[in-house]
Amino acid sequence: MLHGSPVSYVQVAAFLVMSVIFFLFVLRALAARTREAGAKADRRSRIGIVLQSIGIAAAGFGFVAIRTGAPNLFDLFDTAVVVALMGGAVALFASSSKALGKNWSLVARTRSDHQLIRTGPYARVRHPIYLGMLLFLLAMAVAFDHWPQLIVAIPIFLAGTIIRTRIEDRLLEQNFGQAFIDYRDSTPALMPRLSA
Is residue 40 a part of any domain in this protein? Predict the structure, then answer.
């Protein structure tokens, strides 16, 4: 199925507005990047980027039937879910990219002056930006009522995420040795532990 039931314009508008905010933070992080001679990059992470992008696109692919009448209680609930998921996505990306500072990059790489960040969202998960991207994917499926697409979208997105996290973890282990191993062993990759 490439489309779901008609959805309220309110939940679609909430998703679109918060998507703009999300992408403004992405643009801010891109603008703050600095090039550095001597950076060690692993271009294979681009495969992960492509798969994550396909997963997100799969969640949004298809027709969206929008109702323009007054929203009902279910519409308001769906809108609240969209706002919560997108709020999490925005907060995770904004705080994570800020914590990373000059370490942030699209492609997996370490700088010669790279720092192992373990504060902010990195105190709870090693890859909070990917968790934020997963929340974005879920928010899109709720906003557009594309639940069936999640059967395809989530596995593709997670396959890309696994590729990226393994490459990034390998680079960080090579750069930081035991300090990263200790961090990896005590901090989950993507989903925070419920207990503190």
Answer: no
